[in-house]
Design brief:
It is a single chain. With 250 residues, the chain is α/β, with parallel strands linked by helices. It has one domain: Spore Coat Polysaccharide Biosynthesis Protein SpsA, Chain A (Alpha-Beta Complex). The protein has ten helices and eleven strands. The strands form two sheets. Strands 1, 4, 5, 6, 7, 8, 9, 10 and 11 form a nine-stranded mixed sheet that branches. The protein has a two-stranded antiparallel sheet with strand order 2-3. Strand 4, helix 2 and strand 5 form a beta-alpha-beta unit. The longest helix has 12 residues. The chain is globular, with a radius of gyration of 18 Å.
Length: 250
């Protein structure tokens, strides 16, 4: 699968975060979060290169300390995708795909990366993962982006709202009446497409929902979804960190 393609794995990691400053360096069972993410990515063999992309010298120092390749990027990027595009430009090599793994996903399953990579054969411009929603808290949470797709698995729309809306059905039974999907923010882009995406201006839907992938849809790009069975536990806030500790994951 991977050996047929030259693939760059990029882990964007910002120190400045409105909800959780210094998040990539937070200690998780004796290792910084960014190291746990990096090791999960490395567990999938066959990458051309695995690069941590940051604008912070402290993160650079820590990452190089555990043996990672680090590329310093500009500090004014509004998204991980833009940071990945800058890395692609700096690397200056011809690659087939770039995979963007959020630095705050220290529990990402290597199998999920394999699922994403399996979509390369389709030559899809953009690939991402989705997962069936099984609980009401997730279904109605504005912090969990939802997605609807067409019969070919291409994303039609992403929203913080619960989509689709089930007319005439009590919300208490929505999970029984329809299959809903949440979006998992793991992306693979064809290299030529990533270069194009970085040139796009923020779009009205993106600004409304604060979801960068809507910019791509508004500009006519196809986003192929792949359903995963694996649950991921992202860390967006100090409260998430406490929850993970209680779950005994670290």
């Amino acid at each position: 699968m991977m050996h047929d393609y030259k693939v760059l794995a990029i882990i964007p990691a910002r120190f400045a975060s409105t909800r959780f400053p210094g998040k990539p360096l937070v200690d998780l069972g004796g290792k910084p979060m960014i190291q746990r993410t990096y090791e999960r990515v490395l567990a999938v063999g066959g990458w051309h290169r695995v690069i941590i992309a940051t604008d912070d010298l402290q993160i650079k120092s820590v990452a190089e300390g555990f043996g990672a390749e680090v590329i310093m990027t500009r500090s004014d990027h509004v998204s991980g995708t833009d940071r990945c595009a800058e890395v692609l430009e700096i690397v200056g090599e011809d690659v087939d795909y770039v995979v963007n793994i959020q630095g705050d996903e220290p529990f990402i399953e290597p199998a999920q990366l394999v699922e994403l990579i399996s979509g390369f054969a389709s030559q899809a411009p953009i690939l991402t993962l989705i997962k069936r929603i099984n609980d009401e808290e997730t279904l109605f949470s504005e912090n969990t982006p939802k997605v609807v797709k067409n019969v070919g698995g291409e994303a039609l729309y992403f929203s913080r709202q619960t989509i689709p809306f089930l007319r005439g059905i009590d919300k208490a039974v929505w999970l029984d009446a329809h299959t809903f999907f949440k979006h998992i923010g793991l992306y693979a882009y064809r290299a030529d497409v990533l270069r194009e995406l970085s040139q796009l201006k923020p779009s009205p839907l993106e600004l409304a929902e604060s979801l960068e992938q809507l910019r791509w849809l508004e500009n006519g790009y196809v986003i192929q979804t792949i359903e995963t069975q694996f649950e991921t536990v992202g860390i967006d806030s100090p409260a998430d960190l406490e929850k993970i500790k209680k779950m005994g994951l670290v």
